[in-house]
Amino acid sequence: MLYFINDYSEGAHPEVLKRLVETNMEKLTGYGTDVYTESAAEKIREAIGVPDAKVYFISGGTQTNQLAIDSLLESYEGVISAASGHIMGHEAGAIEYTGHKAIALPHKEGKITAEAVQSYIDIFYADAHHDRMVFPGMVYISHPTEYGTLYTKKELEALSKVCRSNNIPLYLDGARLGYGIATPECDVTLKEIAQLCDAFYIGGTKVGALCGEALIFTKEEPSRFITRVKQHGALLAKGRLYGVQFDALFTDDLYFKISKNAIDTADRIRAALREKGYTFFLNTTTNQTFIVMENEQLKKFGEQVQYDFWERYDDNHTVIRLCTSWATKSEDVDALIELL
Amino acid sequence: MLYFINDYSEGAHPEVLKRLVETNMEKLTGYGTDVYTESAAEKIREAIGVPDAKVYFISGGTQTNQLAIDSLLESYEGVISAASGHIMGHEAGAIEYTGHKAIALPHKEGKITAEAVQSYIDIFYADAHHDRMVFPGMVYISHPTEYGTLYTKKELEALSKVCRSNNIPLYLDGARLGYGIATPECDVTLKEIAQLCDAFYIGGTKVGALCGEALIFTKEEPSRFITRVKQHGALLAKGRLYGVQFDALFTDDLYFKISKNAIDTADRIRAALREKGYTFFLNTTTNQTFIVMENEQLKKFGEQVQYDFWERYDDNHTVIRLCTSWATKSEDVDALIELL
Amino acid sequence: MLYFINDYSEGAHPEVLKRLVETNMEKLTGYGTDVYTESAAEKIREAIGVPDAKVYFISGGTQTNQLAIDSLLESYEGVISAASGHIMGHEAGAIEYTGHKAIALPHKEGKITAEAVQSYIDIFYADAHHDRMVFPGMVYISHPTEYGTLYTKKELEALSKVCRSNNIPLYLDGARLGYGIATPECDVTLKEIAQLCDAFYIGGTKVGALCGEALIFTKEEPSRFITRVKQHGALLAKGRLYGVQFDALFTDDLYFKISKNAIDTADRIRAALREKGYTFFLNTTTNQTFIVMENEQLKKFGEQVQYDFWERYDDNHTVIRLCTSWATKSEDVDALIELL
Amino acid sequence: MLYFINDYSEGAHPEVLKRLVETNMEKLTGYGTDVYTESAAEKIREAIGVPDAKVYFISGGTQTNQLAIDSLLESYEGVISAASGHIMGHEAGAIEYTGHKAIALPHKEGKITAEAVQSYIDIFYADAHHDRMVFPGMVYISHPTEYGTLYTKKELEALSKVCRSNNIPLYLDGARLGYGIATPECDVTLKEIAQLCDAFYIGGTKVGALCGEALIFTKEEPSRFITRVKQHGALLAKGRLYGVQFDALFTDDLYFKISKNAIDTADRIRAALREKGYTFFLNTTTNQTFIVMENEQLKKFGEQVQYDFWERYDDNHTVIRLCTSWATKSEDVDALIELL
């Protein structure tokens, strides 16, 4: 069986695991005060080009989103997101659990525009009753999006400008940020993202780590953030688990190098699909590829390939997602292409 | 420098780490549906003697307590705990964050009694205004306690009986449960604990794992618990991280064997302390030892030993805690004894 | 100046106020245990034909919705509502504040259909990832809706059937229920509504009371509901304030008689509008009338009439709402018609 | 039967009710934007001597405490209160419901001291683990207290000073503030209270109103407070209900004049009790009197007088509370004294 179902099927990148083994018996201080956590944070600050950024490590994407959004919002504020945003549907209401409305804007291939955000804000404040409504308190985007698409630099600049002119933070969910950055078509750098966003996270779970995301506040951080993390039950006693992994990932550009494998393998798959005349559901350049497959063919395909069901296309066709990752092997891509 | 400051200074037990390495590149399903998670749960069900117990793996103690308590309580209910309970002070209000009052009962060496619980409940229901008060909805105990003490079987039976006669669950925080079970003086078995409690967790973070606690509902489980875990941001995509570790810990009694090292080393330290005439702050038999040290001596001691400050004793003395763990080395104990 | 801006511009119906004055110096027990509260509840139970219904009085619509919805849902459940539902936009996120997602369905003139609800539920459970999504836990409708429209008996029966077959409660927001019932076109009785819904409230604030809504659970009530009310800060010490008012409103059908005035006056206004060729934004038969007015005309109109801005229609036209109530005077309607 | 059980047995003071009747059919704007609400706020600003204070009207004490405390605290902060504080026990966990720990300090006759507050704060910050604990974020006191006692000016000044030097707000629950001010022994004025506190409320429910408390922020107010009120479900559409009542209460010092009746009648009762040799449980000078009564005597007493059970004193004695209010009649006091 071939696995192209998601980007978290394996454990950690071997180099990351090696560092966990090597440092295992070192006696380190707890709760993220150890030397590896500090080193990882410092390397990330360098990588993003913000010397005084605040960096925290959190177990996974939902916990990170919940903590960041809850901390950045006042109680009467909500977060604006594409209707397709991860926080809107696939986090079991983790945002609402903290008391905040997730405000859905229509999306196009997973993206929202600066114009749509400004328009929402304009209409909100024009409403004479807005004092009895949920205030738009921040903007959430994901990059790459849940549809594998990327914001252009120009789009991000426009979103950043709208957020700043309305005095609300722009937050970027980077669960697959490495795969975005590693895509040749991506015209925005990590350093530019750090400048345009007020907060964002660099995903580890899907890009080489066993667990963990690096949450970054580029400007101000919420007051007493560590206490907030603890209050959410999200502070690991052995913070080293994150520290060592991210220290490894941000040593010698490992994070970016291993991300490239996902793009290279996805590009090979897309080339083969294109050549064989498959219908793309939408055009992507990152590690996620969405195609429309005829149901009978899909049945046979599914006997040899684990894929991700995306949605029903019509009575006879289905949209499926094929995912690559840092761990995708060339021979598995060969085998997949053979099957197409 | 010698380290006796806590029981989470190292990474994972080598055997646990070895299994993480061995299974690292296996392609496994996510969110706790993998074979190792199921195997670990099954081994735990066997170890506790409850074939249909529900077992979940959560990152750390605070997250586990928050999830278990929030899920077991109705919104108008609070949790009864010793004033010294971990949830009362050292979890940054994680229980209150979920909307519930933590109700403090006076403790003796970290323990509460069945009588005190029943008395609290009696007074509560006798109050004509109790409909406008927080209902006592469950009892939280830790075993070993934060003071390193243990409940006797008789005490646990009495607490269990009180809870059942009042129709509220008994929940046991087992952050250091291994160290409790491994103590010869402990007259209650894991299987008995499982019978007496409605929910409890077997701590991994302090007993051989990099992270993770095994939360167990021995009778009914809260509805849709996995969704609650996700909603709290506590569901790992790579659930294998917990599964593989606990599968290793519950293979060939590893969890209990490595726990024994903490007790053996602590016993050696206590014997030496006793011999040298030190004053014990309270008598413990688990991996935590509390002594009263003269401040001048402590200053010198602290130059060679990392210890945990517990509390001020008087103007000239301080209570300190010395901790051992699965990782404590015999030669470090020798060196410590030399210094005493 | 004429007032047709809303249905809460005056205080209480004189008969209601008279009873407050008459009973004012009686010494009554607190927190809703007084004889008037019990009498009011009993009269409501008779009016709705459910002898063992539970009746609670709450200050206003938002508090009532928040309490009812939060109490009827499990923490991982959300409430399905028309996108135009009052809870979706105009309650400042009161539902999300209690941790629950308000799930928007597209509406038609303020209404949702049984088919749309069933379809949402079907798609939800068909999603392989639904364990990590917010469960649809109840259905919220308003009757009359925020658009002044009414559900037909058939529509309500279909919604009720869908809810029961999916084992989730149907909750009806009756802020203007009196005005709905008093409308000749309304083909569903209060008794039928009580049979079809699991919970609903009979609005007092907009129908003759100074404040207060009667929240009714027709079947099971949430456990310890009074404690939940207190926990939300919504339990009045002088519960008599609600009791006396609702006792008056449900004596000799006062509630229904005074509701009729709103419909009679609205009907007269609508007849005049129709006669004079105004464009209706949508057809309503209750106390709210929505028309499209040319902006220049509206400017002059606004100098003599307080109306409610609803929305922009096009560059030259605006949708406005004209509201009547139990308090609308015939001479004011005459004057308004004169101005049209 | 005589009623001395509480201070909320009657409706509103007749003058207050008269104004509700007189203004009943005036067409007023909603949600607290009416002229009476503004007039009431202005009169209160004058009465407290803070021209730019922010004044809001909320239904009852629990709602007011919940809103004020939740709004003044960061999510990781708790409120320090006497263990006997109303928020600690008799509000069904309304504070915890909003996510905050209520931190109990030992009390003496319902009061806490500046020293105890400072000591708690000192110990908190001295704890090396305080980043993982609930931060002390404000101080809650009640005046008069739940025991009917009063803070002296000196005590309040000390508490105010401690709060300001620690940069946390001092909040005063004035459910019975009128009765405190009207007590000759009270050496602090309303204006001084306003200077010493950062927020407080002037109770209406127990002092002449049907419902409603005036919540005052003397310095900064929490951002978008009206939206927070709505989000809590606590914003009345007919805000006039509060406005008219408080406008009446603060016209010609009505609030203070009617408060005096409670003290005069309580003083007469206390004089009679003293003369007849009753044992006072504690000394009070406000409208609440606590005595120890022999159980057999109490049984007979209870057949003619509604009193409030306070607590068991010993096997043969009970502590009871006798309450007066603005509504207590001289002839009822005569009758009570006769019975003593």
Description:
The structure is a homotetramer of 340-residue chains. Chain A has 340 residues and is of the alpha/beta class. Helices cover 41% and strands 20% of the residues of chain A. Chain A has helices at residues 14-22, 35-48, 61-72, 86-89, 94-97, 114-126, 153-165, 177-181, 190-196, 225-231, 240-249, 254-275, 295-302, 330-339, and strands spanning 2-3, 54-58, 77-82, 102-105, 135-142, 170-174, 199-203, 213-217, 279-282, 288-294, 305-306, 308-314, 317-323. A seven-stranded mixed β-sheet of chain A has the order 2-8-7-6-5-3-4, sandwiched between helices. Chain A has a four-stranded antiparallel β-sheet with strand order 9-10-13-12. In chain A, strands 1-11 form a two-stranded parallel sheet. In chain A, α12 runs parallel beside α14. Chain A is globular, with a radius of gyration of 20 Å. The two termini of chain A are 14 Å apart. The relative contact order of chain A is 0.18. Chains B and C meet through α10 of B and α10 of C.
